[in-house]
Amino acid sequence: MKHFNRLFTQKRIFWIFLAVMLVPNVFLCFTEHLPGLFKVVYILLPEALYLLLLNLSRKPGITFWALFPLHFIGAFQLVLLYLFGNSIIASDMFLNMFTTNSGEAIELLDKLAPAVAGVFLLYLPALTLAVYSIRRPDTLTPRFQKRAFMLAMLLLGSGLLIYTPAHRQAPHRARLDNLYPINAFNNARFALHSWEASKNYKLTSHDFDYRAGSSRSPELPEVYIFVIGETGRACNWGLYGYERNTTPRLSARPDIIHFNDVLTQINATHKSVPLMLCPADALDYNHIYQQKSLITAFKQAGFRTAFVSNQLRNGSFTDFFADEADCTLYLAAPKKKSHLHDKALLSAVDSLLNSGATKQLIVLHTYGSHFNYCERYAAEDRTFTPDHINEINRKDRQAMINAYDNSIVATDHLLDQIIERLDRTGKTAAMLYLTDHGEDLLDDDRDRFLHASPIPTYYQLHVPFVLWFSPRYNQQFPLDVRQARERHTTPFDSRVVFHTLLAIGGIETDYRNDSLSLVSPSFHLEKRHYLGERNIPIPVQYIPFDENDLAAFERHGIKPR
To answer: What pLDDT digit, counting tens, does each position of 315-345 carry?
Structure first.
């Protein structure tokens, strides 16, 4: 113990804490595309700040524990770098912490053991050492603190001196608010503001009114089902030319319309799903706080509405919109299971279709291909094996792909069964399927995995979009069907869902924009946009895609614009 006491003096502990706090900055200097001079600033200014903070107490352990939020964000940042390879923690990553249920989080963390272990090995010993620092009887000497302060001033002055030419060199990237941890805390603050704004949603949207009506006879039997997919990337669907026929049932249906060139507006569920359901889009996302969903529009037009989910509530706009329905159902999983397979939704569909309602809108929110993939399908859909993975790495990639492809087989089965049920009703009916975003699956030398990365990839943006119309709908509204078929190669994004569903259902409202409806002769979409950091719209062509992504877009015949 005496040797330990001599080894870990307050002075040495001070420098250890400084080194630990600088770790994220050091990594970010290698992962981010920063101007050369700004990389020097990226170390000097935060180092000066940390020196001043640690110098506030004569026992550095007190300050280190007081800075726990900084260490938490640092740990989060390091895990994100392991997962995505680059980028500062985006505000949506913080929001994901509030909108991801515990079951999903455990499934993911279980497969990110190396990153989690590394973070624990860095911060837990440091926090333990901080306790030791607090309990030690000795303190930093005034002389040491004076020297530390002088060093901090020297680093601060040097950093500011270098910052001036660095900012002139790259004024948009070399900014003080682009320094870590300032940028991370700003994003966290924006996320908190957004979360608080969403909690006031019922108040801010209370007076919203679609003033909607139906252009069709009240006696016309109609039923429309919107299936919201999860994490389905188009390039792994057989319908989209994938080498494996992961969609054998849909591929065998000549009445299916699949759209080749569809991009999501954002790669995070808590925003992408609500943007399908309401008039807001990437160009004006903040309107979502005052708007209600298409469920309310259909209700005002005389439809019996239902929202059925295989996911848990998470306090996002998806939940707010779901509660607008006449029937809102979240399927409960049995004990020792985090969720049911998506095929469990079929019993709810059967019950709703047999309810006797003349006009119906049913929204189904599935788990689709969300990680952990092998948990998303039943034995009957286990087509590709082996499909069990222990860790996310190159060695297990084929098993991971097998599991992911099996989840698409399960989705294919589900959609086929929904179509069969709609067909049997003999009603004027349609089914629309679109997934919220895609997924990275260690596709190239970047080893990118999952979705919701601050900078999206091709694999996260290109999504499958499927439409089906019943024979009776085809007979009554042949022009609608023909317009949709003619646009199966037209580039568009997920904003068309809201307007297309309203048009398919004959819902009249001032919020319906036929230039964004796939069944309208006036359809016209000039540019696709992506909802960027802090809800700023970015034209897709200006997203800083990696060369691997540009090659993937070209390989699949898509222009990122």
So the answer is: 899 999 999 999 999 997 766 666 789 999 9
